[in-house]
Every structure is written in C-alpha cells, then in structure tokens.
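Q: Predict the bound structure with iron/sulfur cluster.
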Amino acid sequence: MRRQKAMDQEVYRFPRSRLGALIERLARDYRVVGPVRRGAEHAWADVGPGAELALDYPTTMLPPRQFFAPPRELLFRFRRGADGRYTCHEPEAERPVALLGVHGCDLTGLRVLRSFHESSCRDRVVTGRLDRAFILGLACWAPCTAEAFCRDMASLESEAPAALYAWDLGDVLLVKVLTARGREVLQDVTALEAATSDEQVALRHRLRVRHEAFPSHLRFPPDRLAVALEAAADDLLWEATADRCLSCGRCNLVCPTCTCFDVGDEGTLDGAAAVRFRRWTGCQVPGFSKVAGGRDFRPTRAQQLRYRVVRKGKYMPERYGMVGCTGCGRCIAHCPTHISIREIFRQVGGGGGAGAAA
Amino acid sequence: MPQVSMIPAPCRVLEALPQNAHDVRFVVEAPPLPAAAFAPEPGQFVMASLPGIGEAPFCVSALPGEGTAPGTFELLIRRTGRLTNLLTRLRPGETMYVRGPYGRRVDWERFEGASLIVMAGGLGLAPLRAFVRRALLRRDAFRRIDVMVGARSPDELLFKDELAAWKARRDDVHVRLIVDAAREGWGGRIGVITTLLDNFEGEVDGSHAFLCGPPVMYRHCLKRLLALGLYEGHLWLTLERRMRCGIGLCGNCQVSGHYLCQEGPLFSYRELRQLREAV
Ligand SMILES: Cc1cc2nc3c(=O)[nH]c(=O)nc-3n(C[C@H](O)[C@H](O)[C@H](O)COP(=O)(O)OP(=O)(O)OC[C@H]3O[C@@H](n4cnc5c(N)ncnc54)[C@H](O)[C@@H]3O)c2cc1C
Ligand code: SF4
Ligand code: SF4
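A: Predicted complex:
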C-alpha cells in the first residue's frame, strides 16, 4: 500500500550533481547541516566546502535533537543595572537549521520531540526551532547498524516532518514533495522533472528488496509494549540486566527522544553578569532521582533501568501519543556493556508471534 | 497552551526572620507582574534564585492577602547547600529572583464542610501553614480542625508565635506539638508524631488529612490514618522531587511518567497508589 502511495504524490528527479546547488540554495536561509565523515564515524555537522555531505552514512552517535534542544543551551543572561538589580535577557533566535538526509528513525525522533514539547506546556524555544527547520528526509536501503530495529518500531518508513523526502538511486535521487516550502526550494534548484518509468520501476524494486533487508526482531507491534511492560514490571529481568549497567548515562545522551535537562548558573566574580543555562541529563545519571537530604527515590540500578525503558514504551505513548523509542539502536550501540532495549522489549513481549499473550 | 518562560522577576525581601540556626522565614514582595498572575494556592511552590548561584523550588508558606499584606507572600528557607546558604543570608531590602507559582491548584470546595487533620513534620509545616491559614480564614466552612506538629527539638519548631496564636484560638483549632527529644523546660510531649494519633479525639469520618514531612513520616502516618478509617482519596501528601524547571520540561521530578511539578507536588494517597516509586 505504502510503497504504491509513494508514487501517487509529487515525485521528481533530482540529479545527484544538483546536491551542491541545493546546499547553496538552503544556505541563503538556513544553517545547513548533514551527516559528515569524521574519521571512521559520521556526525551531524555544517556542510559546505571542506565538509562534504555523506548521504551514505550509518546512524550518527548524537541524534539531530542536538539542533533543537542542544546539549548545553543558554536560557538567558542576567545583567546588573545601576540599582543593583538584575534584568534577564534571552538570546536572539539563531539561524534556522536545514537538516539534509535524515533517516526514518530520526524523523520519527523529531516528531516525538515535538509531541513532548507540545504536551503539558509548550517549550517555545524547541518547538520554534522545529517549526522553522527545513528537513530533507532520506530512505534507508539496509539497516544502518546491527543494533537498529526501526522496522519493528514502525519508524523505517516515516517521512514527516520532512519537507522533501528522497530515495537515493545513485546518479539520481527521487524526491517527494511533502510541504509547500519543500516544493519552493526544490523548484529553485531543479526543473521539477517527473521520474522516468525506468526510475519508477527501479524504486519499486528497491523498496521490495529493502523490505527483506530489515529483519524483524520483535514480532509484535510497538503499541503492545505498554501492556507488556506493565505486566513485566516486577520481572527479575530488570535486575538481571541492570547488574551490567555502569550508570554512565550514555544511553540517555544518545537517544533521540530523551528530553531531560539540568539547570545551572555561572557568574563573573564581581557579580556584574551571570548566565543561566540548561544541559542534558538523564534518568540513568547517578543522583538524578535524589532530593535534598540525599534520599533517592529510584535508588537501585534495576529501578533506574526499568524507568528508562518503561518511559519509552509506556509512559510516553500514554502521555504524548507516540512511542518513545524509534528503534535507532543508538543506546545499544553505545552502551559500554551492550545493554539492549531491543532485547528487553523482545523478552517482555514474549518471543512468540504477533498477538502472543504478554 | 500557554507559552512558558523560565525568566524570574526580582522580588524585594521585606523581612528576614531567623527561626533557629538554619531556617529563615522570609516576607517577600510578590513579583511585579499583573497582580492576578501571582495568585498561589496552598500547596503550590515558586522557583527562587540568585543570579550566578542557582535556583530551587520552595513552597509558598503564606499566600498574598491571607494573613499577610496584599502583594506579599512568605517562604521558609532551610540552609542545606550552596543556594540556600546564600538565600538564607538575604537581608530586608535585598532581592531574590522568583517565578511561579507552579504546581497543582487544588479545588478548595472539595474540602468544605469537612474536618481537617494537618500533620506536619519539621520543614513540612512550611507548606501546610498556608493550608491552616486558609482554613482559619474561612473557619465557618469547616468542621473540626486538628493541627499536629512534630520537630526534632523545641528549638527546631517553626513559626512558634503563630503556633501559639493558633493555640490561643482554643476550640477553633486543636493544636498539638511533639518533639523527638528535649532538654529540661519543655513542658510538652516527647515522641514521634504518630503518637499524637493515639486516642485521637478528632473526627475521622469524611475528614481530609494533609501530610508533609520527612519521607519516614509518610509511611507511618499513612498507616495510622488508614487504620483510623480515613478514606484514601482524602489523604493528601506533598512529595519532594528535584525540580529544575517547575514547568513540566526538565524531567527531574518524574514519577511513573507524571511530572510532579505540574500534577503535584500535592497528591491524594489514592492517586499516588497507582504510581510506582512514589512514596
Ligand atoms: C516542591 C518542593 C518544595 C520545597 N519547599 C521547600 C521549602 O519550602 N523550604 C525549603 O527550605 N526547602 C524546600 N524544598 C527543598 C529545596 O528546594 C532544597 O533544599 C534546595 O534545592 C537545596 O538547594 P541548595 O543549592 O541549597 O542545596 P544543594 O547544594 O543542591 O544540596 C542540598 C542537599 O541536597 C542533596 N542533594 C542535592 N542535589 C544532590 C545530588 N545531585 N546528589 C546528591 N545529593 C544531592 C544533598 O544531600 C545536599 O546536602 C522544596 C523542594 C521541593 C521539590
Ligand atoms: S549506556 Fe549502558 S551502562 Fe551506561 S547507563 Fe545506559 S544502560 Fe547503563
Ligand atoms: S531508546 Fe535506544 S533505540 Fe530507542 S530511540 Fe532511544 S536510543 Fe534509539
């Protein structure tokens, strides 16, 4: 169904040789970032002369959320006036960002980020950045990493919130227009030529092959996670897995849907000026659940690990309407002891086929 | 959906009244916002800060115009660390930076016509004082009011003058104090706060109880009150969690996916029972 629908909408040819022109066009209005090779890895970085866009990249360590909720962000500056009182000054909005080549898992991650920030209260800073961004989505042909399970989490075929969505066929990319803004930009750099019938056939073929390339690890749909996790709340699995956890917090930092932060101040010695900033933290970081007096409300690693997993699979869908795990596999790949949320999901979901009782 | 900001307003300290070696009661000018914007309810809190030092949550201990001058409110701040060390040194005329109020606004009509049981341990009297003041201000709306206050020692008792004033109201409000330990000269009771529930003479049927204090107190008081027959939905507790933003974003205060800064910190035991790792 979905594969056919791709062709019903506006899909245009985009010669690979026009990527430079696209970057130039976007650079007029945006800070243009994309996957860039860094030694053996790829990372999201500004693209341009000397930093080539590498569209054949595997999942980066840090997700695109770094451009919407940065690892460390100035909230405002305090300035002391003549009367000794401080006034607060928020930073000016920075240039909007254009993200090139975002995979389905990270497109989903951006939607989760929005669903959270639009829920109980609106973080106008984060949603504002999402509103102003220009996103070029990119289809994957094979799992990026051995840890990825995007197909299980139904994020492989995500296209929103992209303005344009591309299938890379080598010399040519087929690009689907998803927003008016996307059309406008595409029109500026190409002649909006329809895909040839050969290209359409090639795309259908690759989509069929792709389906086989992504193994199914879970064999149950993600919307069954909430029930499965609730049923497994007191499972020994948590302790068994958490015995390996070092509480290093990497799993939080690399996750596209983690949003927790800490707030801190810094000031000049003379007290004339100060800043208040926020920076990433997470539920696996020691002390996260401590309060004054030193009491900890989730003192054991097992409780902390369970919290992270249950938040992704149950609390987030219940509260924000979207499962909090995109299946990107980052937390598995970057865990020093290889603790796997995919394996936990598989175990709580029961190894059986779809519909098996939890 | 409201747009949010973490920008505080400068607020002048009008009075700084040390209660003991580490607790200071502050009378503070309300943030110079549109007056209606700063209308805290009992159980709500503000974020108070000093530029370059940091910010932390503090319960509103007396609400504007409820036993205070209009346009002022009170905080009770205990010195426990870096920020509170400096906050508790503020003198009248100096400035603290405040935003809020935040937290759940409890509909007071649900308490009307009921008896109230207030149990405060240590610093717990800071937020519960706002409840007692509200109740005494509308005394006719409630039946019997019991206030039980526990502290480590007589020196540690907060708001001593006010406790005496409440006591002087006799049958209006039944005030009982207890301390863990005392030197000679303390004529009152010694023991843990739950012993005040032995031979409890107050009303249980249909009454609401408000608890705030150290975590150990909750478990014991809850058990006793439930055993006395109090309804779970009428047992109100204030929870403490680290809070960095106060507006449902930073995630530090999450319990089972619930953001306490918005949905609490006041909860009924009936609500809390559903939440893992809450008490
Ligand atoms: C809703 C709410 C209402 C509150 N109301 C009041 C009130 O009315 N009055 C009042 O005095 N206090 C109140 N508090 C507590 C107050 O916010 C804290 O005491 C304050 O944050 C301490 O800040 P600080 O910088 O002085 O101390 P910090 O330097 O942050 O630390 C103080 C103590 O907290 C513990 N602690 C803090 N962070 C950590 C960590 N990361 N790891 C381990 N231990 C840690 C330590 O044991 C330390 O001794 C309230 C808290 C909440 C959540
Ligand atoms: S990355 Fe692994 S070891 Fe580190 S906190 Fe997360 S689960 Fe634990
Ligand atoms: S929980 Fe792990 S696999 Fe899921 S989105 Fe976060 S980092 Fe990716």
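A: Residues A 254-257, 312, 325-331, 341 surround iron/sulfur cluster (ligand 3) (CB under 6 Å).
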